[in-house]
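Lecture 7, part 2: worked example. A protein chain together with pyridoxal-5'-phosphate.
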Amino acid sequence: MGSLDHLWLHFTEMGRYEAGEELQVIVRGDGCYLEDAAGRRYLDALAGLFCVNIGYGFGEEMGEAAAAQMRELPFAINWTFAHPRSIELAGEVASLAPGDLNRVFFVSGGSEAVEAAWKLARQHHTARGERRWKAIARRVAYHGTTMGALSINGCADLRAPFEPLVPDVLHVSNTNRFHRPPDESEASFTAYLLDELEATIEQASPGTVAMVIIEPVQNSGGSFMPPAGYLEGVRELCDRFGILLCFDEVITGFGRVGHWFAAERFGVTPDLITSAKGLSSAYASIGALIASERVMEPFLSGGRMYTHGMTFGGHPVQSAIALKNIEIMKRERIVEHVRETEADFRATLEPLLDLPIVGDLRGAGFFYALELVKERETRASFSDEECDELLRGFVSPRLFEEGLLCRADDRGDPVVQISPPLVAGQAEFDRIAGTLGTVLEEAGRRMQVAA
Ligand code: PLP
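Predicted complex, written out as structure tokens:
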């Protein structure tokens, strides 16, 4: 086992394997742990990719749900027809979503959900007699890889190879407060961000802007939390200018920040929510665009339709798996568990701030990032070459060697992302903090970060 003669990996420098680097093949999982073909065990502190929310231990139950559905009805489409599982799942999702976000359109993953959101926003405005097409997103944010979703991304390195992209996406600042002036208050930061957003809308000509899309807690760049009043302010600006507000909850949805949706945690209701990963805890490839009654109302008369669809959107087997996932999450009190233990998790990670190389710990629920700094005093970051040496050359392989899967990421400033399955407990928190402590201490010495 282990050859890459045929399989082409995603976002991977395949030349490394051509040059002889060992390929890790993951062969089984249980709870928060994975095992590779060589028998090594790893604590998966990234939950796959922010997605295996219930952990790896529910295969039997999920498999039975899938098998039962395959026996009953392996496939039916959701175009014109419907089938029982997509109807039931849409009802479940609507009951968990905030406000009157009651209309659910199924897709196969996060990129498709974002793609669907932008298309729906455009058609919503058209159906109301307005031609609006532009989108506003934030710098360094990741929203997927299909051409529409990629255009929304604020990650320059991912965009550049594929330009020209879908035109007319404007990018504004994200909520990274770590590198703002030290004497700036939270209220001033919020005011700065909202002023910038307002000016961007004005500059774009407000009647052309269809959608503002943001993650309530932004992953790329490292778990950027919204400052107080920010989400409320974005909501107010969208209302004032007739723009739809979409929360991209592909990561934050389904429990990651201690609520079914982050919108609920922050008390701000968007018009659209994109979700995927945690909807099935990654046991199936299913996502959903969830829209408010107001957004869908123009499509309910006048012979209009939302002109979008995919063969596999809301596939019966995937829907059955997502339904089972929600049943398990409720039965096992997984969302409550995140809320009840998030303070312990944070407290376990906090001592890492004593390491000179760790500048910041931020996030919520089971969704944290540590920002690595070259100099704590000035918060100075590493150069691109140093990041390469630090993250790819040292931190990632060392964590792997120590049996801990985390993500060392430098789409923004260098961070280590920590996002375990939502069934993790104190034993896992301790191991994550312990291993990170060892490896980051070594990293600090190696990079000559002053104590
Ligand atoms: N949106 C966000 C916030 C994401 O984190 C991701 C993936 O990580 C996506 C969208 C794209 O999802 P997918 O990889 O399922 O297409």
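The mean pLDDT is 96. Residues 49, 109-111, 114, 142-144, 215, 219, 248, 250-251, 276 surround pyridoxal-5'-phosphate (CB under 6 Å). Keep this in mind for problem set question 3.
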